[in-house]
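Pasting two entries for a bug report.
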Amino acid sequence: MEFFREVHHAGLDIPTLKNLLTIGNLTNLCASISTVTPGGENEGDIYCIWGAFKVRREEIRNGVRYALIDCPHALAWTNTFDEARQSLIIHCTIDKTHPDPEFVESIHAFVSDWSDGMCKALHQ
């Protein structure tokens, strides 16, 4: 199942975006993530709305992909810049097509928190 949000931000510099999207900065960018313990540049442990998980960060074309390594639903999300639309795209996926409605609602909140956090971070 997929979830996404779009944040218009003309002229976003992709290296700046990637530098903003660090493991250590996750709590500043998403209110659904309450604590982070970096375990290196591209991995760490987080506590979020679903509990404690190992997170891995990977730079991809035009942004960053994160994955909750030990999540039973294989939750992953990307923050990428769509140059044609001049928008930041927050895209989250899970491996279930018919998850529990409460879980779906929590994922919508997670993606919304990312959207709000990125708006604040990019417009400072």
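Entry 2 (this is the one that rendered wrong in the viewer):
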Amino acid sequence: MSSTKEFHVTFDCAQPERVARFWCEVLGYVVPPPPKGSDTGEEYDRSRPAEEWGARFACVDPSGVGPRLYFQRVPEGKVVKNRVHLDVRVATGLVGEERLAALEAECTRLLALGAVRERLLYDGHDACIVMRDIEGNEFCLD
């Protein structure tokens, strides 16, 4: 029996490229090169049927370590809380006020990108900040 070694995370969204570019900024990811035979992603997109233009976009970890993120357009909007969310690890190993300061600094950076702060969860030792991306998907700064 083989085990899975590689996976990607798929986001349903209204504007795949916009959401993908947000996550590129959050995570330091990049847009992968276009498929073989196309000079640009836009050229590849335009080679597909018109109803599929802008329907998908991806971003990847330039180091090759993190999972690929894939964004696909869906007709329905977000209605309820995510069943799965990303934890963006920005304060690993930090505790107390030092952890809180690192989380707040990253939160400030992400707010400028269009993220929304939901709430701080802090017990005096451990903390995380619950946020939403530009289409309302929950994620945590951890």
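Dev reply: Rendering is fixed now. As a check, the viewer should reflect this: The helical segments are 16-27, 41-46, 96-112.
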